[in-house]
Fold this sequence. Notes:
This protein is mainly alpha-helical and 429 residues long. Helices cover 62% and strands 4% of the residues.
Amino acid sequence: MMSGTRIHTLSLRLVQHRVLIGTIILCGIINVILIFMHNPPSWVGIWSRTAVVSQVPLVVSGPILACYWAYRASNFRRAQLLMSALSTPPSRYYFMSSLRFFGIALIPYGVGLAVASVVTFRVNSVGFLPVSYVVLGIVEVLICVTIGSICGALLSGWFSSVCAFLITFIILQVNWNGRKDSINVTSGYPHSVLNIGKVSVLAIFTLLILLAASYYGGVAPLVSRHWLPRHYAVVSLVLSAAFVVALIPTLVLMPPFVQERQGGAEALCTHTSPRICVWPDNRKYMPELEVLSRNMHRLSEYGLEVPDRFMEQGLADPKDASSAPFNIDGGSTWFASSDWAINVVAQMTDGIIPPDETTDDYYRHLWMLQAWADVTIHAGADSPLSGGPDVDMKMIRQIAAQPFDQQRQWVRQQLDALAALGQGIPVKE
């Protein structure tokens, strides 16, 4: 059992660090809540998306951590706190304090990552978290601590906290090299791979900025009290600015954080025809894809031409036009089947170019046929998708529920209408 003295000491430490403990608990709760608000069906059972969704909440909890640390770091401007640390050089004390807080700040991220991993493991025990995405999350936490350190070194009190919060929120979301190239990655498609080189450069520059900011934070109060020459603070401030200025064009010029990978040997494919192939990350969809493949094969009975195979994005050879690419998005196969339906109808209407005066009617028939094919692939189930402008999905489901001969006749009518509206170019028989 603990002695009374130890209990008293522990109680004092808890009281002393109650704001820190409260901040960490709050950020951990925010991370877990936001993870489960991020459409669980889209990431549960998929390791790459689990890793991504675990760092997405940092765009909210990260600024809070930066806000807290900016306020604490600004205390170094107070002489009494600086005097208590004179047994260690002030700059080293500032830097080591920032690193200690960085270790503590990883706890909320780690909690969210662990919870999400357990949920995914229960669905898919094959595979593990991609290390690159985990490293990105750690680097994001380091960025938050660094921004807090900079604001705490330059500003005072609550103003440093407000600035740290806003700057961190913006930095994590700004696009550095084209659309969707923010530090806080939100996609995590199986065909995507993280640019670990860019992440490494970001981590190195962030550490250098933290070192320079720590040196300034340690010596600035001494300079202001005429204990050190002014150039000590000027040099550290110039170094910090130089690192920031060098980092910005580096992030802009380097390739995006997320890039597409190409593969094929590791694909998982259905045993039915047409073959539907996906990345191993999406293995949880395989039983459903087997059923959808059999349903899609029946489209040929209605006079449509069905390709032999469909390859998920990144698995298909870009030069191979026969392997229609698709994406499984939002935790549903409806987005993928919509791509399949578009591709099937395209096999029949290839070469048809509608004149301007019949464009609206042409696309109305085209979208209706695509919507019918999509619903038929899902055996008449209610589609969460709109089916396109001017498409009555209720009517499409009614058509899909009609006897085979009536559906085949309706399909033929749509194809004939497309041929008639498309400058008389015949549709494939």
